[in-house]
Design a protein that fits this description.
This protein is α+β, with helices and mostly antiparallel strands and 143 residues long. Helix content is 31%, strand content 21%. It contains 4 helices and 5 strands.
């Protein structure tokens, strides 16, 4: 297994992984152009796990200067429970820490019980004191 920084050339394989992953909801912002912009803004913070040229796991992260934001942690179903997600998460958090980011957040879909269990089991705390509000400043609801 090889772990390395994610790059935009990975996009076709990433898209396949994300489309197959339970709990990953893709939006227009997850287009190749959107991901390229995200990676350029957040260099060295997103990673893939690759085995034999096949991407079997991914994680993306960025920050606003104060807080980190984790996105698209995904591992192929048949490769889960092998420590791939744990390694990807450690790489990501270490990279954020190197940038001075000591607290990170992840958004989990309300009906994704598997993700809720995963994050809780790793010491992430569900917040009940805040709610997320979104504003769409564009044409589509899937922005």
């Amino acid at each position: 297994m090889q772990y390395r920084a994610l790059n935009i050339d990975d996009y076709p394989k990433l898209l396949q992984l994300w489309q197959a992953a339970q709990g990953v909801k893709l939006r227009e912002a997850d287009s190749e152009q959107g991901i390229a912009k995200y990676l350029a803004r957040n260099p060295g913070l997103s990673f893939v796990a690759e085995d034999g040229g096949k991407i079997v796991g991914s994680i993306m992260a960025g920050h606003d200067g104060k807080r980190g934001y984790i996105q698209h942690l995904a591992v192929l179903t048949e490769r889960q429970k092998a420590g791939i997600a744990t390694k990807l998460l450690a790489l990501c958090l270490d990279a954020l820490k190197a940038e001075g980011i000591l607290k990170s957040h992840i958004h989990v879909l309300g009906d994704n019980a598997l993700a809720k269990e995963y994050w809780s089991n790793r010491g992430w705390v569900r917040r009940s004191d805040i709610e997320v509000y979104s504003y769409i400043n564009g044409a589509g609801e899937n922005t």
